[in-house]
Amino acid sequence: MKRTGKISATPNPIIISGQTRVGVTKLVWSCAGAKEVEVRIGAPDGPLFSRSGASGQATTGEWVTDGMTFHLQDVSGRRPLLPEHTLATVTVGVKMDRVVRGLILMYHRIAELDADPWSLSVAPGNFAEQLAVLRRAGQPAPLARALVEMDLERETDPLLVVTFDDGYADNLYQALPLLEEFRIPATVFVPVNYIGGRRFFWWDVLDLLLAAADLPSEFRLRIAGANYRWRLDEPAPRQPRRWQASEMPPETARERFYLDLYRLLRPLPEDERSEVIDELLAWAGLASAPSDPYRQMSLDELRRLARHPLIEIGSHALTHRDLPDLSPNTQRDEIERSRTLLSRILGHPVRSFCYPYGSFTAETAQMVRDAGYACACGHFVQPLAAGADPYQLPRVMVGNWNGEEFARRLSAWLRP
Ligand SMILES: [Zn+2]
Question: Measured in angstroms, how far is the CA atom of residue 153 from the centroid of ligand 1?
């Protein structure tokens, strides 16, 4: 049987606004049947970009030029790099000359946490300073208005859109009062199956383990037929608040444990991951359901937030999984049913979608369009430019910066 595969790039085309003629994109691929695949640049035997099992994803550096083609090659059983073993190709466009219209900002939580290795939270004081900067730097706008105005011909101050992902209760109690004070609108994306706050997000459990005062000295785990064992008694944990997983190599046993678990759990199917999470919670002696500041909004809290005139609620799918990893039917269900359920909860149609982990393919984006959404946000560092695809909206993630640092980053992001 002839093997087939899929490869796609997002964003595609890459929109660039500066003087460089190169851009960055994220490639996602999968195939049925092949054990090992390679992604080659320009030709079946061109330079190697990445190698994986049956599916994979990787982000390029800033070197993709207009018209560059990526070949997904079946190399199972040492198949040679020939055109007959090409499973799929994707050609990436790089487009220039778009006018920068603004920026979509991504927040998750307004909270002070004991450990935050991926910088997902902004302290309330810093958030207030950031909002003051937004008021001065341009026009804070709801997502829907930014979508219309980004294509208008007239020159305007930059449109600045605030969004929140994941539906934490602190969005209502910490963020909303400050948004009100500065009269800044926001869109809040909620993963529908997490409404009610009865389940932990898996990454929050890992954060709690990183910050826990005492843990048993050993943890054993069996995943996909492999056995793992960690010793946690030395060296002593350093200040968990200081460690940033994307910037600093792990130094303590606890940090290595965290990173190992993160890498093992992220690709696991939902039910297997939940089992490991339950095991970890029991092992560490932690409560099985989240409390503040790790709790998501209840139904009542979500409705209260939704009624506020500054707030729009959007869908963040049902279960917060990487959509491109799922079968087309399951993807469609995540996209369509989350809209139906959320529209019923809110009493009006939901217009905006946000891809969990920022992951999507061209097919995913098409499903979002077919489901009746008006737009979808991704996660890649680009300003909002005239002519942007409403189903591949760029967003930049905001860190726990004070007003001065935030103002500096903002002007760098908006620079044409
Ligand atoms: Zn999310």
Answer: 33
CA 253-256-257 angle, to 5 degrees, is 85
Q: List the domain range (segments joined by +) for residue 61.
A: 5-95
pLDDT digit string (tens) for 7-55?
999 999 887 766 668 889 999 999 888 889 999 999 999 999 999 998 9
Distance between Cα 107 and ligand 1 center (Å): 10
Q: How close is the Cα of 92 to the center of ligand 1, in Å?
A: 26
Alpha helices in 104-188 (DSSP H): 124-137, 143-149, 170, 176-182
**Same structural domain, 262 and 386:** no
Do 280 and 216 belong together in one domain?
yes
How many A from CA of 181 to the centre of ligand 1?
Answer: 26
Q: How far apart are CA 182 and CA 163, in angstroms?
A: 15
For 154-210, the pLDDT digits (tens) are 778 999 999 999 999 999 999 999 999 999 999 999 999 999 988 999 999 999 998
Listed residues 95, 124, 151: the one ending a domain:
95
Q: pTM value? A: 0.79
| Phi, psi of 2, deg, nearest 5 | -70, 130
Structural domain ending residue among the three candidates 284, 312, 341: 284
CATH of the domain at 63: 2.60.40.1930
How many angstroms separate the alpha carbon of residue 396 from the centre of ligand 1?
A: 13
- Residue 361, domain CATH: 3.20.20.370
Please give the distance, rounded to the nearest whole angstrom, from the Cα atom of residue 9 to the centre of ligand 1.
20
